[in-house]
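Write out the bound-state structure for beta-D-glucopyranose.
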Amino acid sequence: MQSSDDDTDQTYGYFDDQNYEYVITTPYTPTPWINYLGSNEFYGIISNTAGGYCFDRDPKFRRLTRYRYNSVPLDSGGRYFYIRDENDFWSATGRPATTQLDQYSCRHGMGYSRFNASKNGIATQVTSFIPLDTKAEIHSLVVTNHTQSTKSIDVFSFIEWCLWNAEDDGANFQRNLSTAEVEIEGSTLYHKTEYRERRNHYGFYSVNRQLDGYDTNRESFLGPYRGFDRPEVVEKGQANNSFARGWSPIASHHLKLELAPGESQSLEFVLGYIEVSVDHKWHSKNVINKQPAKDMLTRFDSHEKVMDELGKLNRYWRTLLCKFSVETPDDKFNRAINIWNQYQNMVTFNLSRSASFYESGIGRGIGFRDSNQDTIGFVHMVPEKVRARILDLSSTQKFDGSAYHQYQPLTKKGNANIGGNFNDDPMWLVLSTTNYIKETGDFSILQEMVIYDGQEQATHDHFDHLLRAFMHVINNLGPHGLPLIGRADWNDCLNLNCFSDDPNESFQTTQVGASDVAESVMIAGQFVLYGQEFVDLCQQVGKIELANRSMKHIEKMRKTIEQHAWDGEWYLRAYDSRGKKIGSHKNSEGKIFIESQGFCAMAGIGLNDGKVEQALRSVDKHLATDFGIMLNQPAYSQYDKYLGEISSYPPGYKENAGIFCHNNPWIIIAETMLGHGEKAFEYYRKITPTYLQNRQTLLKTEPYVYCQMIAGKDAANPGEGKNSWLTGTAAWSYYAATQYILGIRPVYQGLSIAPCVLPSWKLIRVQREFRGAQYSIEIHNPHGLSSGKITLSIDGQPVEGNVISSSSFNGQHTVIATMV
Ligand code: BGC
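---
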């Protein structure tokens, strides 16, 4: 079903809501439009032409297949299927062969991608997915002969092995060109590089049919100096049966099919990962133990079995997405909330900022700040995973309450290269934890014993970790009594203590300033907001004395902000290492920043005396554009080492006056707190992909997911997107839309309902699973209001206030909320 949006440009694709798919209609999208496979530990990234790679847990240390970032042509390396019909050949996924297809589409769905192609009356369909609880990519290929005559077709599969450590694979050629080893048995091509020494894992690529040939050496398959677009083996129609020893190992199957008119045949390819115990590594001398691979293959040795697994994956996703669904008069809002935003939330939660088309999978692991924030969009879907993640993050916290900025998923140890001192990091742990408890009612997470700094001897309960996070802020205050910024706060690029003149240095880890002067108003607002959450939590668990003591710190901070951080029409951003104001009308550039407006407003600082109202008006006046709200204005026009990386970007990009979508929801939330439903919605739709279909060409990034950054008004090409998929924008937008626009917000006692919507929305229906009960909620807005009071009834019984008390309910319930 094609979307009926009349403002949709559809140059490259369209939504198919019925199937929860985005349909891409050309292999030549402006950037590779990717999807993610896998929901637990084993993941793949896959573009609309099957480019990308897969890995087990850690895209740096356990990468199975090679991908070339920054390649020419773009998007090189993937799971390729070449179809050869007489002297013609093409790619079943649209590329890398350049032969023009008669028909092509790629359907990115929830955890799978499906490629349809046809040429010369031969139709192919490749369905790629990672089955639940399986460490393998499945590529199911169906070939159909739509001609009137019998066809003899050659199929060649292709993947290239990565030698496991992706960073080393791209650098250490003097060693790597000598180490590759493979084994071949039947139709399975095994990759066992370094297995002879310290590794106890191998990869394999198999197909459920007898082979007519194979290749495992890349140059033999491609032919000298050729690219993936026209491998020599495919051109001549016969595999070389090459056996890789060193150089670049690949896996390619050659299969000859004979298809009668109208006949279809299917081939099930399995690209798997096996880990064996050290005691069971070998079958015999130098022969790997293949039994676990063979066991896995029996699960996927027929088309029926494979489709059955796909069915399970589809049902898994349908069930997950049913936990929260909405029906408003706006289809684009419904599509974002019901399908794509939730899907992106799962992906960002799973992968943090590690592997995407923009993140190489070797640089960044799991970010402390990023992953804590990611939980707020995902906790309603799989709360158990969020619980485990929060505890993992907690275990990388240091004893003084600070945190490693990142950790590697495989080791779960803080990343020493980057270290800590990003002073906003600690308080995000309070956000994720309190939000988790409000969703689940599970206070037991607080009693979990968690190590500090990855060290066994330092173990305290998780509550202690939150307390230390809180204390870290007040133990690190600057000259005005505002929190010290450290290397950076949320804005990684505002580096007020790192003065670098040397292009070979990192902007963030070169610490030259005294670091006890520069202060962050963003962290101050964050401390008031999440500090208050900490106080509420203390009260919930009966730590009244601690709550009272903590409250005093918060009150003091609130006063300090009012005294030292109000600039007249908006909140300052920071004080630099020399005590100078940043984000003040007195500055010539960088007069106003979004982060401090967002956090001080969400914390309600100046709510009663008009400061919040005034700050938001200033955001609207100075930062809002047609494409979203910019991070700062005016942009910095030259590099200033006292500001750091922010001033390194050309104006309009990234943190230098780009539209950094991540923080737009902070303003959306603040607007709803003032009851401004229309303004909140206006900001929401500017960055939400379901509303951007008529901008596919300008945006360039996938029009089904949020991107981190849209170029701001000072850029060469305002409105152009970058860094799609792995961004905190996903969780924050979802949180803003569901908890503040729809206003369905978990609180300790239950579910509170406080909508702030478009006045034209007269009826909203929500299905919400919450703490074991299923609520059908109807929000009626007979007077066309944006916000205000509501009257509530549950199963026909009127209720005082606006909270559904969770302890009273399980099973199915009908809630009617009327805005009055
Ligand atoms: C990082 C975030 C950071 C943001 C703003 C992103 O690339 O992942 O941690 O808050 O940039 O600097």
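---
Residues 353, 367, 369-370, 490-493, 655 surround beta-D-glucopyranose (CB under 6 Å).
The chain is about 25% helix and 25% strand.
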